[in-house]
Task: structure prediction
Amino acid sequence: MGGKRPILGVINVLPALLAVSVAFMGGCTGEPSPPVPPPTEPVTPGTLTTQGYVYDDKLGYGFEYPGGWELYVEEGDFPDKNIKKVVSFEKKIPKDRAQVSVQIELVIKSVTDLQEVKNEFKKGLERSGLPILNEATISINNIDGYDILSGTPTWKLRQAAFFANGMAYIFKYSSQEEFYRMYEETFNNVINSFVIE
Result:
């Protein structure tokens, strides 16, 4: 995909034998996107199911699947060795003879506590120069979490992190402002349905 992303860069996604480069920050790219083959099931059978609901029996979490979005799963070597898995969903929207990509991403990683995740978010935003627009402590299905919104008048990034059993489950959602508003309810549905078994 086109645009450079200021915060988290590009995530290489390798589900099954498919190698697709996907930019996390979604946002709007002014260039047409290359064709992307349809997503495939994860390499390890039985660890992730996606029949209207995403469930990972290995890591013990689940949440509602945003219907009509493409699914990508990455497991393996990450620059941050604490990351265990990345699950992302992408919605491509035609706009002005190009495509806008909106993404929701879940990063699962080992951490000490929720405060470590909060500090990481704030340091990343400080480095990027993005102001914090709102932050809150949350609890979804008896799981403690932290929700932070940052961005500019034209672009938004929302991150919601949950902590349980030494693991952080970090949901990220970003897009150009008009598309952020359009799919914010989808993101809310995803995080409100999140459970840890």
